[in-house]
Each structure stands twice: as C-alpha cells, then as structure tokens.
Design brief:
Number of domains: 1
Number of strands: 0
Distance between the termini: 48 Å
Order of helices and strands: HHHHH
Number of helices: 5
Oligomer: single chain
CATH topology: Serine Threonine Protein Phosphatase 5, Tetratricopeptide repeat
CATH class: Mainly Alpha
Amino acid sequence: MDKIAELLQTSTIIPIGIYSVYVVNFVLNTNRVLKAIELCKECLILLNALKTKKGYVRSIYMRIYLTMFVGYIFTSDHRSGIECGEKLLVLIREYDMRDAEGFIKQRVAGFHNCQGQSS
C-alpha cells in the first residue's frame, strides 16, 4: 500500500513541479522577480514533500534553483544568492555541466566580493 501511495503522490507532484517551472520562468521574464523567487520557494516545499531527489525530480530541483539564482542576481540579494548558488552547484556537479558550473561559481564569487568576503 505504501508503494501505491508513493506512486500517487509522485504522479501528482512531478507534473505540478514541471508546470510550475514554466510559470515561474514566465513571471521572472515579466520582471516580477520577487514573486518568481517566492513561487520557487513554494515549489521547493511541494517537492520536499516527495522525500526523494531521484531522477526527474532532481532535474526539477535544478531548474527551480537556477531560476531562483537568476532572481537573486537581478535583486542583488547577495546572501540568498550565495546560499542558492551553493545548492545549485551541488546539483550541477551531479550532471557534470562544466559550463554552467563555471558561470555559477563566477556569480557566487561576485556575490562574495560584493559582501567583502573571500570565496
């Protein structure tokens, strides 16, 4: 019975996560950055309810964190940008995306520089 409940939960939350990524990107592209970040945080709450970070769920996590990170770049929220960037780096390293990893590291170093910290 637990497998059936887990399957039902996964089959409803994953499509919500996929569609929410599209909605959040639309909101971000229409210059409502703070609202996009807020929606990303709500998406993470839903995904955390799955209690799994395997397969396609991990890809959704990466997209949400990437959208949040871009939002933090636009708002110059350095502290939150550093936290989000570090979580994003962990996910990106698992996919071996070296170009994206370099971009994120560069931006996180910029956030540290703006705060007067060494990266």
